[in-house]
Design a protein that fits this description.
mainly alpha
């Protein structure tokens, strides 16, 4: 078997995604779909690797001026609104919000207008 190189990095990243997905309460199918999208977007894949290694978002990727942190905060605001808590509680699953931010970035890159509308919906006239 000379000449065969084995690179376990992608397997480790995949396992990390599944682990975080289980912690977030996402299905294996949901994680598989996100994995396929990450593999098709090298920059987003590298951002996810950074997240797994450092447990925070580097926020280098932009779509129409929005980054992963913007999408994460949008997720958190939606949670607070739906939960009618007005703030981030202990019950808030931050891992799910991070994974959803990655998923939203995938979708936002495909159709930014929809996400821009969702993220700006409800802002008053005094807010930019």
């Amino acid at each position: 078997m000379a000449g065969i190189l084995y690179d376990a990095r992608r397997i480790k990243v995949y396992e990390g995604l599944l682990e975080h997905g289980v912690d977030a309460g996402e299905s294996a199918q949901w994680c598989e779909q996100l994995w396929e999208e990450l593999l098709c977007d090298p920059a987003l894949y590298e951002e996810f690797v950074f997240y797994l290694e450092n447990h925070h978002i580097r926020d280098k990727i932009r779509c129409e001026g929005y980054g992963l942190i913007d999408l994460y905060i949008w997720q958190m605001n939606r949670y607070n609104l739906i939960g009618d808590s007005g703030k981030n509680t202990e019950a808030c699953n931050k891992e799910r919000m991070v994974l959803n931010a990655f998923r939203d970035m995938v979708e936002m890159k495909k159709n930014p207008a929809i996400y821009i509308k969702k993220m700006t919906l409800g802002k008053g006239m005094d807010q930019a």
